[in-house]
Amino acid sequence: MTRALLALVVALWSVAAGRDALDRWIDATPLPVLVQETGAEMRDRNGALLRAYTVDDGIWRLALSADQVDPLFTRMLVAYEDRRFFDHTGVDPVAALRAGWQALRHGRVVSGASTLTMQVARLLEDGPTGEWHGKLRQVRLALALERRLSKPEILQVYMAIAPYGGNVEGLRSASLIWLGKEPRRLTPAEAALLVALPQAPESRRPDRHLQAARIARDRVLDRMVRAGILDSETALASRRDAAPLGRHPMPQLAPHLADFALAEGPGRHDLTLDAGLQARLEDLVRRHMAGRDPRLSMAVVVADHATGEILASVGSPDYAATQGQGFVDMTRALRSPGSTLKPLVYGLAFDRGLAHPETLILDAPVQFGSYTPQNFDGVFRGEVPVREALQLSLNVPVVRLTAQMGPANVMAALRVAGLEPALQGGAPGLALSLGGVGLTLEDLVQLYGTLARGGQAVPLHWRKQPVAPGARVLSSAASWHLGQILSQLPPPPGAGRPGQVAYKTGTSYGHRDAWALGWDGAHVAGVWIGRPDGTPVPGAFGGDLAAPLLFQALGRARGRDVPLAPPPPETLLTGHAQLPAHLQRFGAAAQTEGLRVTFPPDGAALIADAAGVPVKLRGGVPPFTLLADGRVLATGLRDRAFLAPLPGPGFATLSVIDASGQSGRVSVELR
């Protein structure tokens, strides 16, 4: 009896010692890195994937959280791969005994005993498991993983790194590439395919071995019926579903902005973009530029002018195009803005009491030192309302206003609006208001967003985070006047009726850039067309090329028409005759002795003479400029009596402009 008791004690001690040694052996197991590198990804304002990146070795491996996985997939995975997963401690003795018995009985391996935890161990170490020492290492690591991780965490690691063929790893990458969708909602057939692929990822990948992939999927479906996960009718219907024929492209929306965000670091980036709108605008730009000169590029930005959030940003028609330098993000390229700064100049003039939309301003030849501005069409129109001068985008009136205010004040307003204008040389000159400064498309959209927001700057931004409003650039009244003037421009053919969109076009010097900027009640947008290398595009005009795209972009952004804002209470709404005297004509207070044409009298009928028609003046400051129907006939005239080579026969309007900007005008008939 004593010997038997002693033997029992020794046996128990040996078992306990062996167990303790086993525990120490398992606890001493060095764990490999459990968190694998995942590719950076860009998400839109609602969490939708805009663009994803591979990890450094070119593998598609994306971050995956538990709430991104359809519970059906998890149930099917456990039922197919390791139905006692939640009961064992990393090694399933029942499965091991069954596999051993089947191997002895059949003389070959019939079924494996590898648990999901052991598969995770093998994937983490990426080592051989065919030899006994490799299998032993796998068992040891599996037991260690079970002590360090929970069951859901082990499943999470498996779904993050399981191989799915080619350069695809992890459930999420596999679902996007093989199914074209996130794994949050899967059909039984889709879930079965994703369960089956990791067992033989290369021989079952659908793009190369479609039939093998389908057979493996159907085998999983059959097993799910026996496991009680699916009923037979559902499994039968799922077998009829078509297997994927090849790879789906990973989302590649907003590639330029995505690259810019990636430069700030890896991981997940939540952007303000709207994936649906981004896709629609990329398609619009691509179709609009199809068949055109491949050296041309195009860029579009759409933003919410209340918040400054960029909703869509298209840097070029084709990110991969080389001839048109599609890789260059033209939303951030410095270009000449052409006439698109004119609304700001007029708004500043309104706020400084220099002009009102009904103020008359002189459109006539004028010289500021060596600078002589010209209108785009070469025609001068004499006195015109400021409203009309802006709508016609006349150059001379806006330069007169710039000279009165000083170009430094215009430059200061650009900076207050949050822009970073680039100048070549020193101080800004009068050509600033005609595009003599470097700005980006994003800059201009931010400026026009300021106009749309009633004159208060709002920083344009693409990262999803609160941004404080900027400084006030213009008064609410001045901004409303600008919107009302620009909204009365005729829209491009088929783009709706006036009054819905306030917009301005522009063409830079030498036809290098075609612009269109504008806003409605909710959104502000900008379009640029040109060549990234800055070479001219003969015949390119902002109104012809860019304006139709502006209206289409705004149309795709708004779900419904949002009207422009009503006038603020302080707005001066009146006609020209009711304006204060100093606002009826720009520069009226500076005029002293008036300029008059004393001959020929207004309405006279004259006989055309080859030598010309005699003209006599009174008052004014020489030198004088002579125009007929807005076209310059002579400049630098210093005498108050001269012969004018007027065309004839017919009716003509004769205008004379002096050095101070005063004018005299008569209408005559030549016979």
Label the structural class.
alpha+beta
> What's the quaternary structure here?
single chain
Shape, principal axes of CA atoms: elongated
Number of folding domains?
Answer: 4
Q: Helix share of residues?
A: 25-40%
CATH superfamily of the largest domain, called what? Answer: Biosynthetic peptidoglycan transglycosylase-like
How would a crystallographer describe the biggest sheet? 5 strands, antiparallel
Straight-line distance between termini: 150 Å
Family: In the N-terminal section; belongs to the glycosyltransferase 51 family.
Pathway: Cell wall biogenesis; peptidoglycan biosynthesis
GO molecular function: carboxypeptidase activity; penicillin binding; peptidoglycan glycosyltransferase activity
Organism: Thetidibacter halocola
Could you walk me through the main structural features you see in this protein, from its secondary elements to its overall organization?
With 671 residues, the protein is of the alpha+beta class. It has four domains: 1-30; 31-239, Biosynthetic peptidoglycan transglycosylase-like (Penicillin binding protein transpeptidase fold), CATH 1.10.3810; 339-456 and 467-503, DD-peptidase/beta-lactamase superfamily (Beta-lactamase), CATH 3.40.710.10; 591-670, Immunoglobulins (Immunoglobulin-like), CATH 2.60.40.10. It is built from 20 helices and 18 strands. It has a five-stranded antiparallel sheet, with helices on both faces. Strand 4 and strand 5 (310-314) form a beta hairpin. Helix 4 (116-125) crosses helix 5 (132-148). The longest helix is centred in the N-terminal third of the chain and has 26 residues, at 2-27. The chain is elongated. Mean pLDDT is 88; it is low at 5-12. This is peptidoglycan glycosyltransferase. Keywords: Carboxypeptidase, Glycosyltransferase, Hydrolase, Multifunctional enzyme, Protease, Transferase.
